[in-house]
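pinned: reference chain
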Amino acid sequence: MIAWAIVGFTRRGGGDPFTLASATALYARVLLIVGVVMALTGAGTILKAGFGFVHIAYSYYAPQVGPAYTSPDSNVAILQFDFPDQQRSQDLVLGITLLVIGALVAVGHYYLARAVAHMAGGSPGWVTRGAVLALTVVTAIAGISSAAIGLNQMLSYFIIGPPQSQEPWGESVGMAIAFVPAWIYAMTRLVRDLRRPNPAATPIQGSA
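pinned: its structure tokens
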């Protein structure tokens, strides 16, 4: 965001007008990225819960037995269990919530960006291309790191075995499945935009 703002202020004297529509376009694309990331995080969380439905140990630790306590109305010792089934249901609800809200935020601000694009200064290049670059960076960081961690955890689980201390791989693999395709798509859009000629860089006819 800091780099994006610096580019915007430096480009104001380079032919790109900075108007209220420009600020609105920047806001719309920032919230568009926030919505996309929120929706992708929700999709990854849903996948984590889905792996847990296939086998609970893929995404959650085995039930842990807690310390015993005495019932207030009897002398019976009761053991406390941490059941991953409840965590799985909570993750499923959280994932659906993030996916729905993120999708609504992204779609709403996408149409807001389209609405101001035809206004004066409503679609400057440093905003439109900067949004694609920012989305590429965010999805790359999340996707590549999740893929590396998830692959390591999954291989360790299936090759070494699933002891109690083994890290479940469902969360990292789920996030990788959600973010890596988004990163590839954003990178493809970025390369396509870079190959497209910039109208601001077109030389003026008759200049020396």
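why pinned: The longest helix spans residues 125-160. The longest strand covers residues 64-65.
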